């Protein structure tokens, strides 16, 4: 049994589908050990955008070493997944924090709560993180 290669553009649709999938973000701690944590995301073109505090393990790792990997999966048969390795940049611009906090909050919590999440997350030490993919692996219907 092999994996089914995903068609071009499939991974962006998979990541953007609603209800929104939570990404699993992998980073490296200062001591070199791995760390994985869930993050809410949205796409801006081919960039994956999420927010995190600069004070978290995720935030400290991204500021120290911008290499990250995200995994998205469909946990229902026949199972599909996307992994995106890339480089991350950050912004603490208040307008970007509010825009992305609202947009991402709305994806996961619904339009009626989007502004609430935007205001809650648009404060220091939060950062907007943009991941530019360097390698994407996308597999569909793994169990078929």
Major beta sheet summary: 8 strands, antiparallel
In CATH, the homologous superfamily goes by the name Electron Transport, Fmn-binding Protein, Chain A
Q: Roughly what is the average pLDDT, rounded to an integer?
A: 95
The number of helical segments is 4
Helix content: 25-40%
Molecular shape: globular
Note the gap between the termini. 8 Å
Number of domains: 1
State the name of the first-level CATH class.
Mainly Beta
Give the second-level CATH assignment, the architecture. Roll
Uncertain spans, ≥5 residues at pLDDT below 50? none
Percent in strands: 35-45%
Structural class: alpha+beta
Q: Based on the structure, what is the oligomeric state of the protein chains?
A: single chain
- Which value, in Å, is the CA radius of gyration? 15 Å
Number of extended strands: 8
SSE pattern, N- to C-terminal: EHEEEEHEEHHE
Key features?
Pnp Oxidase, Chain A; globular; alpha+beta; 8-stranded antiparallel sheet; 8 strands
Task: Please provide a brief summary of the model.
The chain has helices at 10-16, 57-64, 94-109, 111-121, and strands at residues 4-5, 23-28, 34-39, 41-44, 47-53, 67-74, 80-91, 126-140.
């Amino acid at each position: 049994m092999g994996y089914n290669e995903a068609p071009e553009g499939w991974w962006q649709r998979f990541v953007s589908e609603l209800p929104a999938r939570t990404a699993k973000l992998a980073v490296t701690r200062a001591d070199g050990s791995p760390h994985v944590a869930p993050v809410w995301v949205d796409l801006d073109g081919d960039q994956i955008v999420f927010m995190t505090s600069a004070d978290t393990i995720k935030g400290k790792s991204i500021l120290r070493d911008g290499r990250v990997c995200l995994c998205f999966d469909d946990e229902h048969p026949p199972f599909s997944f996307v992994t995106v390795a890339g480089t991350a940049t950050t912004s603490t611009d208040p307008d970007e924090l509010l825009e992305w906090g609202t947009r991402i909050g709305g994806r996961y919590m619904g339009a009626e709560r989007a502004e609430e999440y935007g205001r809650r997350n648009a404060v220091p030490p939060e950062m907007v993180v943009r991941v530019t993919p360097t390698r994407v692996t996308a597999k569909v219907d793994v169990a078929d």
